[in-house]
Design goal:
The chain is mainly alpha-helical. It contains 51 helices and 4 strands. Strands 1-2 form a two-stranded antiparallel ribbon. A two-stranded antiparallel sheet has the order 3-4. A hairpin with a 6-residue loop joins strand 3 (1164-1165) and strand 4 (1172-1173). Helix 8 (144-162) runs parallel beside helix 10, helix 23 (544-554) runs parallel beside helix 26 and helix 41 runs parallel beside helix 44 (1016-1029). The chain starts with a helix and ends in a 22-residue tail after the last strand.
């Protein structure tokens, strides 16, 4: 006892010292270490110390510390106590609760005592729960403090049992749920009576001036509401309704202090589904909930009360929460009534309810108005229609909304659109209820998006009325835009709102009523839609903003062009007229944009770009409609180019229009189009000047971005014309590949959740690009070689004048730092450099943009060619350039550049490279790539983990202190996470078996299987990377690594070295991943199960790995083997494995594996010897700072 007293005094001193404002970081860390040591020490000693610390004679901080230790011991180490000790702990926990509940203990202490008792009840089982309930209800009658404490305990007990946790066996969980459900008829009336009784006492005490007493009773009401919220999630609806809780919530909705928690309870009820409830019980509960909400809404929507719903009004937060709850209720429960008569009756109330929601929707406070929009989206959506008929146009009879409501909603959405448009570019101009301008901008995008969807849905139901409304709004906007008396800002917002409304209407009407099998009134609908298009074709604008939206408005009519292809020529001619009537300075005859353009030039350039994109959209959506006009479009493009009406930018866009329109044509026409588009590129690339620029990196730099000093002596980037030209050449090559190679888009039927990029189609013998491979591919690889060489140290040293061009830009950096993206002047203020006006500019930002665009287009082009064009693999001159071009300077590539290479090129190339070409094309790339990636990401992860200390990083980068160095660490960590995930996806592609094809050695063999046969050292490098990733604290990478390792287990029997590695290092990595809190337990257990099923009976490696874990003895392992062998169920085997591994607890397992986010033994593989290396060793206890004088607890 003497030793225990010394320990307690020592703990109290450390805890009290750590809580002082003047405490140092070391002193606070000592308190954390003391807590860890107590949690790991002998369970009885730790309990004895904790029970001494929780005595009310100690300071609150000490009591809280003691309850924290006790909570851990009870929650995580319950099995180490005997049955008799279990009973003693139950009695002690209740006594502690009664003690703190009967005194003026703080809420923090009472809630801790409640958590401990809830955990004891959970561990002991349902019998204790039922035995405790009468005692708890008796304790609650002792006063307000006791009643509040009991409410807290009831909430904690319910949360411990009902919330998902995997620390209980299924049978125990079912027993507890059964016991808890049996207590509901007693608990719910107690909660309702507590609310009613203590609310009345609180009001009486307040009226008598006894404010402290009033607060005590009010706290009981708050606690009872909080507990009711927990039970409302799952409790049977019959006792919940009978208890009067819904009526109580309806009453509290009218009170100032308790309306928010009462609203939360009703919101929780709206989430309930009928499940096993009877229809009568369920409908009664939902009807009572709806009536309570309607009653509360009617009160806050009176003319006098509506003002309080605005920003910072008394009902600001409550109004939003009430509106959100009503929207969820209406969206979910208007269809649940079983009979026609009951639905009609409810619709009568729904009309009143709808009026309320309509009032919320049109409220000027945008945050409140937005909460009502999900209701309309749900009720109007076809998936919620009662009588939806697939393949037919939507009909108002398919929705429960009255016809007049749909009509009013159409007009209301059009009016509300004005609020979400015309967002000022001035970053200081935004409503005060938004954090900043970007927050306001993001909200407006979402807000008008929801409104546009509402317009679409209503237009599908009322097409003729919607088209008439669109015509009225367009005519009004055009009239206002032609008036000089209307300010430009108002003209912009009016026309933008009208275009968004029209776009939504036309899109919905064309999809539902102009397609095959559409409405019977199709001719009239077609005529009205065409009239809208003619209205827009007759408009003319000189204002760049209006011109931009004018072009945007014409995009909406693609489906109309499919029905009436004769309108295509009029749309094309309108686009050409828009180009001609709005000339852009310096844009003619291949001229380059100005290095420092004016804002007016930028606006006009953006509008002209939108004109081209409008034509691209039509060509992509309706290529068959544009096919007859290809020759005219090509001739007009040449004519406009020769006349100086369009520049290089617009010419490339119009080329893209032709390519997109030809995507649905036959092969011969596609070849003609590609030849027409790429003829100029071929001529330029075969010129002596271009070839000389690719002779060496120095020549490349001299030609494309030689440096010279400007008038002020600052470095200026030259080569504007060549850069502008190469940028557009690569654009045309990339889009020639994209437009002639349709991808298999979307998730497959076998795996609808697959979010990976779409799979490529089989290689085509007669691809339109086949005839261009011989001149295109070698030159692309030479560009690639020169570009990669720019990042070598010696080359960068010669470009110090524009060093920032080779670093991450301020906008991209802001994205990685999760900060607002700087714009305009902010870029200059934050980074000290000007923005890139164009890729052909003369500053460092322009050069950075050009380098990125060239790199991305080049990787995309190469990826498309190697994936789709069979002639790619027959290009002899390119074969020798391929490996060096991609990998010669891989060690100099930045993380984001390497990720881009993997994503755009290597992922598809690895899957699509034919088996007969793997040795000549794939192996030269994988040979340097796989070892480099293992070395790069292993070293970076070792540093990240060692710097993260004992704080778990989760899935995102660590929050670091301010400063450039700290920001660099955050950015690099996020880049490493992205790069790791991309590389793990590459490894997953390597284990995917291609579909067998006739002929050719190795058909149907995965890349990893091929490597195991042809280059086993390289294959083992890939396997080592996958195993190492099991140790890295990143859930996405861990999931991919687990899937990769499971595939490796399947082929391990073909290679002895892989087999042994799987049984040792991979198994240990799987156990390490299981101990990580951020990894998916089920997948990790499946990996461990696969390894043990394969090797436990035949190899010593798994047995040695398991016996090395704490608390696992040979006898336990023998019993484990017998249990696994006795069942054939994989699910049961995974449960047995988890039970064995968790014998020593997660903390001990992490400590044994050097986890806990300290420098870990990352499973980095020595390719020559395949021996595990550690990136760091755990220090002995005395070198980590000692045991803080608590060593006696571990004896």
């Amino acid at each position: 006892m003497q030793a225990t007293a010394e320990v307690i005094d020592r703990v109290i001193h450390i805890v009290v010292t750590a809580q002082q404002p003047s405490a140092t970081q070391i002193q606070r860390r000592q308190a954390v270490e003391v807590s860890d040591q107590l949690k790991r020490a002998d369970v009885r000693n730790s309990t004895q110390v904790a029970l001494q610390l929780v005595q009310s004679s100690h300071q609150i901080e000490v009591q809280h510390f003691g309850y924290t230790v006790l909570q851990h011991v009870v929650g995580a180490r319950w099995e180490e106590f005997t049955a008799e000790e279990h009973t003693q702990l139950a009695s002690t926990s209740f006594a502690l609760l009664a003690q703190v509940g009967g005194t003026a203990s703080s809420y923090a202490i009472r809630s801790k005592a409640a958590v401990v008792l809830a955990l004891v009840t959970k561990r002991q089982g349902g019998q204790l729960l039922q035995a405790l309930l009468p005692e708890l209800l008796r304790l609650a009658s002792g006063g307000a403090t006791q009643a509040e404490t009991v409410c807290i305990v009831l909430r904690m007990m319910a949360e411990e049992v009902t919330q998902y946790r995997d620390d209980l066996e299924a049978d125990n969980k079912r027993q507890l749920l059964s016991a808890l459900t049996a207590c509901v008829p007693q608990v719910l009336p107690f909660l309702e009576q507590s609310m009613e009784g203590h609310f009345g006492q609180a009001v009486t005490a307040a009226q008598q001036g006894q404010h402290q007493t009033s607060q005590l009773h009010a706290a009981v009401v708050t606690a009872a509401l909080g507990t009711s919220l927990t039970y409302a999630e799952w409790a049977p609806l019959a006792p919940l309704t009978d208890s009067g809780l819904i009526r109580a919530c309806a009453y509290f909705l009218a009170t100032q202090d308790f309306r928010l928690p009462a609203c939360d309870i009703l919101k929780q009820l709206t989430h309930r589904r009928q499940d096993k409830e009877t229809s009568e019980t369920y409908n009664s509960a939902m009807a009572a909930t709806g009536q309570a909400l309607v009653q509360a809404a009617s009160a806050v929507l009176t003319q006098q009360a509506q003002e309080q719903l605005s920003f910072e009004g008394d009902s600001d937060e409550f109004g939003q929460r009430l509106c959100e709850t009503m929207a969820e209720f209406g969206a979910t429960h208007l269809h649940c009534l079983p009979t026609h008569d009951s639905k009609i009756l409810f619709l009568q109330q729904a009309r009143e309810h709808t009026v309320i929601m309509m009032t919320f929707t049109q409220h000027p406070y945008m945050l409140l108005s937005s909460k009502a929009l999900p209701l309309w989206l749900a009720l109007l959506s076809p998936r919620d229609a009662v009588a939806k008929q697939e393949g037919h146009a939507p009909n108002p009879s398919h929705t429960l909304l009255p016809l007049e409501c749909i009509s009013a909603l159409l007009d209301l959405a059009g009016e509300q659109l004005r609020k979400g448009v015309g967002v000022s570019q001035d970053t200081s101009d935004y409503p005060s209820y938004f954090e900043d301008h970007q927050d306001y901008k993001d909200f407006c995008i979402s807000y008008r998006g929801d409104l546009a969807r509402i317009v679409k849905l209503t237009a599908g139901l009322l097409p003729d009325q919607a088209l008439a409304a669109a015509s009225r709004r367009l005519q009004h906007a055009l009239q206002q835009c032609s008036s000089s008396a209307v300010p430009p800002a108002e003209q912009h917002s009016l026309f933008e709102a009208a275009v968004l409304f029209t776009d939504s209407v036309v899109s919905a009407v064309c999809s539902a009523h102009l397609s095959k099998g559409g409405s019977p009134n199709q001719a009239a609908t077609l005529s009205s839609t065409e009239a809208l298009l003619q209205l827009l074709l007759g408009a003319r604008f000189a204002d760049p903003v209006l011109l931009n939206w004018h072009a945007r408005s014409l995009e909406s009519f693609s489906k109309l062009l499919a029905v009436k292809p004769e309108l295509v020529q009029a749309v094309m001619q309108k686009a050409f007229d828009m180009y001609a009537t709005n000339p852009l300075e310096g844009n003619a005859y291949g001229g380059i944009p100005p290095a420092k353009p004016t804002p007016q030039w930028k606006e006009l350039q953006t509008a002209r770009q939108r004109i081209g994109l409008m034509l691209v959209a039509h060509a992509k959506a309706q290529p068959q409609a544009l096919l007859p006009h290809l020759a005219a479009l090509a001739n007009k493009t040449q004519e406009l180019w020769a006349a100086g009406v369009i520049g290089t930018n617009e010419q490339s866009t119009l080329f893209d229009v032709v390519l997109a329109a030809a995507s649905g044509a036959d092969l011969q026409l596609q070849k003609q189009v590609v030849e027409w588009v790429l003829a100029g590129v071929r001529t330029d690339w075969q010129s002596s000047a271009f070839q000389a620029a690719l002779d060496s990196p120095a020549a490349f730099i001299s030609h494309y971005f030689d440096l010279h000093a400007d008038a002020a002596g600052h470095a200026e980037v030259g080569g504007q014309q060549p850069r502008w030209q190469l940028y557009h050449h690569l654009y045309l090559i990339e889009h020639s590949g994209k437009r002639t190679t349709p991808l298999i888009k979307g998730p497959t039927a076998a795996n609808p959740q697959d979010k990976r990029p779409p799979s490529p189609p089989p290689l085509r013998h007669d691809h339109p690009l086949s005839e261009h491979v011989d001149w295109m591919l070698p030159n692309l690889l030479r560009v690639c070689t020169c570009l990669h060489a720019v990042w070598t140290p010696q080359t960068l040293a010669s470009l110090q004048g524009v060093r920032s061009a080779f670093l991450m830009g301020p906008k991209e950096r802001a994205v990685y730092l999760r900060r607002p993206v700087p714009r305009g002047r902010q870029v200059v203020e934050q980074s000290g450099e000007e923005e890139a006006a164009t890729v052909a500019g003369t500053n460092a930002a322009a050069l950075r943009a050009w380098l990125r665009q060239v790199r991305e287009s080049m990787y995309q082009s190469l990826g498309l060619m190697c994936t789709n064009v069979r002639a790619f693999y027959a290009c002899g001159p390119a074969q020798g350039l391929w490996g060096p071009a991609l990998m010669q300077h891989v060690e100099c590539m930045d993380h984001q550049h390497l990720r881009m290479l993997l994503r755009h090129l290597m992922l598809s190339f690895t899957k699509s490279c034919p088996a007969q070409h793997r040795n000549s094309w794939l192996r030269p790339v994988l040979a340097p790539l796989l070892p480099h990636m293992l070395e790069r990401i292993s070293a970076k992860w070792s540093r990240i983990v060692s710097q993260s200390g004992s704080s778990p990083p989760g899935d995102g980068a660590r929050h670091s202190e301010d400063g450039a160095a700290a920001s660099d660490e955050v950015v690099e960590e996020r880049l490493i996470r992205e790069l790791t995930r991309e590389h793990l996806q590459l490894l997953l592609n390597m284990v995917e078996k291609p579909a067998p094809s006739p002929g050719g050695a190795g058909s149907g063999q995965s890349v990893l299987e091929w490597l195991l046969a042809e280059a086993p050292d390289l294959a083992l490098t890939a396997v080592g990377t996958g195993v190492a990733a099991l140790w890295w604290p990143d859930s996405d990478s861990g999931a991919k690594a687990t899937a990769f390792c499971r595939a490796v287990v399947g082929v391990a029997t073909t290679n002895e070295r892989v087999y042994n590695f799987v049984g040792r290092e991979m198994l240990q990595g799987g156990i390490a991943a299981l101990a990580h809190p951020i990894f998916t337990t089920a997948e990790t257990l499946q990996l461990i199960r696969d390894i043990l099923a394969q090797q436990l009976a035949s190899s010593p490696g798994p047995r040695q790995a398991l016996l090395a874990l704490p608390a696992i003895t040979p006898s336990m392992l023998t019993q484990f083997e017998a249990d696994v062998a006795a069942t054939g169920s994989e699910k049961e085997q995974r449960f047995i494995i988890r039970k064995l591994l968790m014998q020593s607890g997660v903390d001990e397992l992490q400590a044994a594996l050097q986890l806990n986010f300290k420098p870990i033994a990352a499973a980095v593989v020595n390719v020559n010897g395949y021996e595990q290396r550690t990136s760091g060793k755990q220090l002995p206890v005395d070198q980590q700072g000692g045991d803080m004088g608590l060593g006696i607890l571990t004896q």
